[in-house]
Amino acid sequence: MIAEHVIARGSVRVENLARAVGVSAMTIYRDVANLEQAGIVHLDRGLVRAVATSLSEADAEFRLQQSPRIKQAMAEALAPRIAQGSSVMLDDSTSAMWVLRALRDVHPLTVITTSLLVANEAKQMDGVRLLMAGGEYEPWAHAMMGPTAAANLRAWQADHCVMSASGIVGKRCQHPYENAVQVKQAMIASSTNRYLLLDHTKFARKALYTFAEITDFDAVVVDAATPREIRDELAGHGVEVIVSE
To answer: Do residues 153 and 72 lie in contact, with contact meaning Cβ atoms separated by under 8 Å?
Structure first.
């Protein structure tokens, strides 16, 4: 609850956080110390700042625990598009991980990824051929990133790619890290059908780098909490909008 409160607001003073969560300031300092060690927040003179900002992203394992029902519903809405015998590129986003879980009964399936979290899940699934692109390991993503990973991805051609964005500004899909942008762009260039998963919180955020435009994707999957005007704007760009239940 503390991490979610801080990430939603960017930064919160300890006394305000204690009041909002309903615990003592001492408890906040103790819990924030654990979150700081995990790289999720940073404490500076009584101000707790979220590491996930326009310039950075939160740890992948932490993100995997956030809004699981929303991400599962979005994944299940997309899953019917990916048939048996397909190949699919999955980025390091937790939305892509949920798509993989939704494909558990779809096999044979070839999964191409740079994410160790995705790979660890895929290797336990029946009928999955796993291909991994090497590169520089990024601890925050638990994935390989950078130009080497991008070059490896461009050597393949997949039926589908599935990814998310840290933020959306107009038609621009954004992410805070250039080495992650290189991987996403390689996946887009190396796939036939491209899908972008965005929960409603992504439309209130921006990030440093633009890796694509909405129109680069065949379909955008959003959750039911995404405002109608945003859905209409996406559809107005000529992109199919899939709304999860």
So the answer is: no
Alpha helices in 67-217 (DSSP H): 68-78, 94-102, 116-122, 146-154, 178-189
**For the residues 174-184, what does the mean pLDDT come to?**
95
Q: Is residue 57 part of a domain?
A: no
Residue 161 domain flag: yes
- Domain CATH number, residue 222: 3.40.50.1360
- Among 118, 69, 58, 97, smallest CA distance to 223 is for 69
Residue 161 has phi, psi (to 5 degrees) of -135, 145
Give percent above pLDDT 90 in the chain. 75
Left (φ > 0), alpha (ψ -120 to 50) or beta: where does 158 sit? Answer: beta
Cα 213-70-50 angle, rounded to 5 deg: 70
Q: How far apart are CA 84 and CA 103, in angstroms?
A: 9
Report the CATH number that the domain containing residue 40 is assigned in CATH: 1.10.10.10
Contact 94, 74 (CB under 8 A): no
115 within a domain of the structure (yes/no): yes
Domain membership of residue 42 as a residue range: 1-51
DSSP secondary structure code for residue 82 in this structure = S
For the entire predicted model, the pTM comes to 0.80
Segment holding 164, helix H or strand E? strand 158-164
Residue 58 lies in a domain: no
The predicted structure's pLDDT at residue 52: 61
Please state, in angstroms and rounded to a whole number, the distance separating the CA atoms of residues 99 and 133. Answer: 19
Asked whether residue 47 falls in the same domain as residue 96, the answer is no
